[in-house]
Amino acid sequence: MATPVSITRDSSQTDRAILGIRDLVLRGEFKGGERLAEVELAERIGVSRTPIRAALQKLEEEGLLELAQPTGYIVRRFTETDLDDAIEVRGTIEALAARLAAERGTSRVVLGQMRECLAEIDAVLAEKMVDLEHLNRYAAANARFHQLMLEAAGSEIIERSLKRVVSLPFASPSAFVLAQSKIPDAFDLLKIAQAQHHDIVDAIGARAGARAEALVKEHARIARKNLELALLHADALDYVVGGSLIRRYADDGR
Amino acid sequence: MATPVSITRDSSQTDRAILGIRDLVLRGEFKGGERLAEVELAERIGVSRTPIRAALQKLEEEGLLELAQPTGYIVRRFTETDLDDAIEVRGTIEALAARLAAERGTSRVVLGQMRECLAEIDAVLAEKMVDLEHLNRYAAANARFHQLMLEAAGSEIIERSLKRVVSLPFASPSAFVLAQSKIPDAFDLLKIAQAQHHDIVDAIGARAGARAEALVKEHARIARKNLELALLHADALDYVVGGSLIRRYADDGR
Amino acid sequence: MATPVSITRDSSQTDRAILGIRDLVLRGEFKGGERLAEVELAERIGVSRTPIRAALQKLEEEGLLELAQPTGYIVRRFTETDLDDAIEVRGTIEALAARLAAERGTSRVVLGQMRECLAEIDAVLAEKMVDLEHLNRYAAANARFHQLMLEAAGSEIIERSLKRVVSLPFASPSAFVLAQSKIPDAFDLLKIAQAQHHDIVDAIGARAGARAEALVKEHARIARKNLELALLHADALDYVVGGSLIRRYADDGR
Amino acid sequence: MATPVSITRDSSQTDRAILGIRDLVLRGEFKGGERLAEVELAERIGVSRTPIRAALQKLEEEGLLELAQPTGYIVRRFTETDLDDAIEVRGTIEALAARLAAERGTSRVVLGQMRECLAEIDAVLAEKMVDLEHLNRYAAANARFHQLMLEAAGSEIIERSLKRVVSLPFASPSAFVLAQSKIPDAFDLLKIAQAQHHDIVDAIGARAGARAEALVKEHARIARKNLELALLHADALDYVVGGSLIRRYADDGR
């Protein structure tokens, strides 16, 4: 028979360790390439070493850490190509969801909810401000929109696949939104992204799956543009979750 | 400091539990919808309950099990749509890899290795037999081919993403190959699949990324045809890893 | 032996008739559905009836006229779906050209010429005016850009195919640009179109054919948006070549 | 008022000249690069020089002839790339039609008619013969199938666009079918083409437009394979309409 209590306790400790380590790493407390010490992590997070070990293994699978030689784990460093690829994979799976949402048919109710998100974003953009308050409102409505699009495909398999891919920082649809507060011309990119949002809903509503798929793929590439711009403006990177892990070319003397 | 010994021991126990449970489930020892008991699993696999718990959690994340109410885990049942979606996701990510392999350029050496796999498959098909011996040879060369195609993209991120998606049974490129020993006209499907293989290598070599992407997506759909055919021939399903988890429409009286 | 003189004279008369009739029709002198009289056309254009007949046949092949019952020709009327389809066909062939330009490789010289066109458009947009003078400058640079993109594919066959498809009014890449002087928010559409131009050049330069193809298809759909907007603003349609042939739903009491 | 009688007479003479010259050229009576003499053509076809001139101009527009210097026309020679491009353009427009047929929805009646064509082809292939009699039956059902697919899109604009593109020899869906009587392994290509036909109908019926589009594009490329094979087997080229116009690399000493 299953033993719920201990499972719950165990997994809550492991989950706490996972969240704690991920947070430390993404906040930049450990730099890319730095070795992680179990004892130190156990003390800082306040759990025993067993859940720390399980968490390290999990985060290695997620791709945030890598195995060190001869033993242990180091914080992974990401090249610009890694980020491009992560964004491309995310965009590809989201695009698949959008295509299936169009082909299988999406109810008016869901299309209406998607349009509500877009009305909120339109309202944010109408104020023509790109400060953190406006960007946070943008990011919230944007995240809901992307979640609705995913659900519209009606596929648990795809939803699960996307969640795994997005477990990497940088790959989420809103990863670079806040960084835009420090990027010149960010407002133009936001308007283009929002125009794509409107086109995506139109395409899904018109059952034009090929168009929906192509639009979503291209939409994801706005994150790549934001990344490029963030790399040019050092303070922008501070607003990207995990920004400290991005291997800057300058750092390597390249 | 990291403590390698205990990590290794722990994770080897957990890995053993994961492999053991996965094997029992995919061999059909537990049916779709059946509740799993920790104690029984611990005894059958010969590890303690702690690694069993970690393994169950891992397999739930993979999508092979699902959380039961109020506690514990049951074996997941898959509908035909689930399988279609899993195959589509796999095909979509493989197709992305093939496109990038074409666009970024693939060396003659790697193209040559891909062609060697195809020469092996050509040799198998020239004997015009679809018994298990020939299908096993086909499956082996096929798996190498798909791995080379993935590596040709030169992206650790994509490779990792695909591995996670393929952690589901049925989604692997060779999942249905052995079932073809029990499917009439299987030989024609193998020849079509092999013609696609040749076209894929040509497209990558010609840097025709859009064509490579479209071909690989369509290539994956041969698995869907095999699935449909396997569902019509009960004995074919015995040769699909995890075939017992596929929810047959007849089972539900639909 | 060929007889150049008479060919030249004949075809110059026919060409004059073609240009004359096309101009009369597109300027709205004859309405959609109106029957054309040979004698009247011959007088207005100043050529004999033989070249008029040849011209009418040619324009029927082009799709601007249609055969009347029992004889003769009437001016064709176009539905919104006809226009959508014409734009989609144009976008599809241009997209093919862009893909091949990316896959076959485009020289730095040509990429540089494309970027010069975009610099001109950037300069026009920097003045934030959408009057006819600015739109004419936009349209000129836009037409050069699209021509360069087509030539980059290096395919006489594709160039010829596109020319035939674009023989229909409305289908040309700049068909709706001038109408934007009467459309609110036209400036935003111009900026989005220009952002797509930049992305297209980037994709061709990076040999990313699939992306280039998808971008150009989507780019063409901006013409559909302009069409929709022009149909809402009667005076905008006056700036579309052949605007008088578009069958307005209101006209039919629908 | 229009004058039907003379139009009819004129155009019937011109049509006769067009058909006559096209036939002479495609039958190989004039070789690629050869200059055409009006007087000789007028005598052989039995019409006066005026319709011959109109026909030459028309065939130059179609792409079968080209303007000579200083005057007159020569028979165009086609490179393998020209043929590839013509096939690619044809496939691209047919693919657009298939996508729209899927997205806009195709009636069961039309899907049934498409399946009837496929049943005929299945019957032909079941006899496992690739002689001219079987290939002619294949070509007839194949042509009907492609026509039905085109009509399923319900777009006069697309139909017209395709007709113009296919005015070039080699570009038609059945251009290389008869040549297969002289090509080893032709039967395998026919089976693959037919498997694609079945997939195309399935995709249109399932409203899977992106898949239908990709399948039709790839389907057209079978013509490119047939072309390559025909170039290797000189006698096969005799069965391709206009085969004598294909510039063989050997001819140029390349």
Secondary structure blueprint with pairings:
The structure is a homotetramer of 254-residue chains.
Chain A lengths: L3 H23 L8 E2 L1 H8 L3 H14 L2 E3 L5 E3 L4 H25 L3 H19 L5 H21 L3 H10 L20 H20 L3 H24 L1 H4 L17
Antiparallel strand pairs in A: 1-3, 2-3
Helix pairs in contact in A: 1-3, 4-6, 4-7, 4-8, 4-9, 5-6, 5-8, 8-9
Characterise the protein shown here.
The structure is a homotetramer of 254-residue chains. By secondary structure, chain A is mainly alpha-helical. Chain A folds into two domains: 4-75, Arc Repressor Mutant, subunit A; 80-245, GntR ligand-binding domain-like (Four Helix Bundle (Hemerythrin (Met), subunit A), Up-down Bundle), CATH 1.20.120.530. Chain A is built from ten helices and three strands, in the order H-E-H-H-E-E-H-H-H-H-H-H-H. Chain A has helices spanning 4-26, 38-45, 49-62, 80-104, 108-126, 132-152, 156-165, 186-205, 209-232, 234-237; strands spanning 35-36, 65-67, 73-75. A three-stranded antiparallel β-sheet of chain A has the order 1-3-2. In chain A, a hairpin with a 5-residue loop joins strand 2 and strand 3 (73-75). In chain A, helix 4 (80-104) packs antiparallel against helix 7. Mean pLDDT of chain A is 87; it is low at 1-9 and 249-254. Chains in contact: A-B, A-C, A-D, B-C, B-D, C-D. Chains A and B meet through helix 1, strand 1, helix 3, helix 4 and helix 7 of A and helix 1, strand 1, helix 3, helix 4 and helix 7 of B. Chains A, B, C, D: Pfam families: FCD (PF07729), GntR (PF00392). Chains A, B, C, D: One of its GO terms (molecular function) is DNA-binding transcription factor activity. Chains A, B, C, D: This is GntR family transcriptional regulator. Chains A, B, C, D: Residues 11-78 form the HTH gntR-type domain. Chains A, B, C, D: InterPro entries: AsnC-type_HTH_dom, GntR_C, TF_FadR/GntR_C, Tscrpt_reg_HTH_GntR, WH-like_DNA-bd_sf, WH_DNA-bd_sf.
